[in-house]
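Troubleshooting log. The previous structure file for this entry was overwritten by mistake, so regenerating from the original sequence record. Sequence copied from the archived sheet and checked twice against the printout by T.R.
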Amino acid sequence: MTKESNKNLPAYLEKMNAEILELNFKTESLRMSFNPDEFFCHSDGTILQGGFVTTMLDASMAFLVMQLLDFKKVPLSIDINVNFLSSGGPKFTIAEAKVIKIGKSIAFSSAELFQDDVLIATASSSIKLKDFISKNWLNNTIGKNIKIIK
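Regenerated output below.
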């Protein structure tokens, strides 16, 4: 994501320097990067707080579902199950999300979060699909440099 501020992007994603790196329609998957700083950590700014780990996983799954549905639906988490496998720190982070199934009103997805190629957390989510209004939101905000594979 560019350094210039974007009023349409939530402040937490802007502060984490969130960016969608790759969207693959063939595999229904998405790669997204974050660069959280000490603001998102506890223990003297050394360990990522679990809620922010969950946010990164949730955001990657949500952006994938929105794009696959051509922004006709907005994803609302019904539940999200997160497994914290290793502590993360204030550094470059990659989320890899994939769709398990998309139905008419419910979708299922999963995601993994990595730092330095170490898996630090996984998630799975059930997602309620509601009507959405802004088709180009992703490309105009967090996906400006996205690589799309069809």
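The chain has a mean pLDDT of 90. Archived copy saved in two places this time.
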